[in-house]
Amino acid sequence: MTTKSAGRLLILLLFLPSLSFASIHSSSNSPADMTHTWSGYACAIIFILAYITVTLEETIKLKKSKPVLLAAGIIWAIIGFSYQQVGQVEIAKEAFEKNLQEYAELLLFLLVAMTYINAMEERRLFDALRSWMVSKGFSYSSLFWLTGLLAFFISPVADNLTTALLMCAVVMKVSENNQSFINLCCINIVIAANAGGAFSPFGDITTLMVWQAGLASFLQFFDLFIPAVVNYLVPAILMSFFLPKGCPELVKEHVDPKRGAKRIVALFLFTIVTAVSFHALFEFPPVVGMMMGLAYLQFFGYYLQKSLPRILEQRKAQALANNDETTLKRLGSIVPFDVFKRISHAEWDTLLFFYGIVMSVGGLSLLGYLSLISGTIYPNWGAQWANIFMGALSAIIDNIPIMYAVLTMDPIMSTGNWLLITLTAGVGGSMLSIGSAAGVALMGASHGKYTFLGHLKWTPVIVLGYAASILTHIWLNQTLF
């Protein structure tokens, strides 16, 4: 989640000759090009400074949403003043409202998805899965492959951050004294979680953005399944030769999920079906179906609350009849399910960071910077090489601004190339530990056993997987190009 190349790219723009407002040529229907004005330079510098601050999040302990929220406000204040001077304030207002609408749709979609994930976590579904894994006595090799494969297949429906943290907790629980194994496992989990999220519209914010923009249908994302598998397997197979032999010490643990956990999973799957149906049948934004899915969870939460006293009485009677002291103690800790509490536990820092990025990049687009970059990279390099480069850039810049920048540039590309940038932006972050939210989170969760340098040592192997997945996509899906 760092930025250097984007900074260099925008800084280069600052050395272009400056123009005054009076020299700007534009029609009343098209926004003025302000890439060479003081306002354009100021907005570019503000965005660069904000993003540099984001990259220092772990060092200065400042939430990443704060600098980009401030930057977005200042950028649009400058834009408002500048476009007022040239008589185009209405164009600036329309651009702002368009960006805000796009953000609002994604915000509500992600809020529902995060609420469901938090509800599953509160019902201890993930704890139950973890306890099952740590009590089975798997070998180091089995644990490596099991956590990787689960990360790959859970991340398409849960976000890759939650998935990675869950799998990391398992690894830390069963092998907390083996640093080299934890480092390898964490690298494997990061690669798997990012790859798994790349072939599902629900697996990552970037895939969701492409789907909601209507650039690929729901089913077309699954054309990326085999390339995503290749992206995961190539480095995983090579790393598996360096795993320790034997088994970690067995850990005995048992956790029962709370009442309603499995039904919440079923409701989440039904919510996904609802969102896809609204988009496929009526061409409505998927967020309509997701908000309807939130109603499913609210009504189920209401049922859990109303039926709780009756269920407690039944279980208490059974426990007293069986003289089960353990069950009686556990009954005292049961609390009603609260949907709104689950909503409050959403990743608000991430959601607000996303607002800052969307509005800042949207402002730079209105000023003309993204058109300038798009007119340079995509025509001169070709769509495939440009998409490969943008994906690799996501190893040092968060993939959200990368994908939003490409969507805002809106280069003319085939469906195959839109899927290519979806793939590369999704898996490119695996090349560095700081290249994805999963990697950054695991560096903190592993207590220093998974590090930047430990990941960097395996970057050449991960690059092989990155290249192999691209070649696989171009070969298998050549009819889409």
Automatic annotation (TrEMBL):
Task: Report the membrane topology from the UniProt record.
Answer: Multi-pass membrane protein
One GO cellular component this record assigns the protein to is: membrane
- Which InterPro entries does this one have? Cit_transptr-like_dom, NhaD-like
Q: Where in the cell is it found?
A: Membrane
Q: Where is the signal peptide?
A: 1-22
Query: Which Pfam families does this chain map to?
Result: CitMHS (PF03600)
Give the GO biological process terms.
sodium ion transport
Q: Which UniProt keywords apply?
A: Antiport, Ion transport, Membrane, Signal, Sodium, Sodium transport, Transmembrane, Transmembrane helix, Transport
Parts of the chain that traverse the membrane = 38-56, 68-83, 224-243, 264-282, 288-305, 351-373, 385-407, 419-446, 458-476
Citrate transporter-like domain spans which residues? 58-426
Keyword DNA-binding attached: no
A GO molecular function held by the record: antiporter activity
Q: Give the top-rank taxon of the lineage listed in the UniProt record for this protein.
A: Bacteria
Task: Write out the similarity annotation.
Answer: Belongs to the NhaD Na(+)/H(+) (TC 2.A.62) antiporter family.
Q: What is the protein's given name? A: Na(+)/H(+) antiporter NhaD
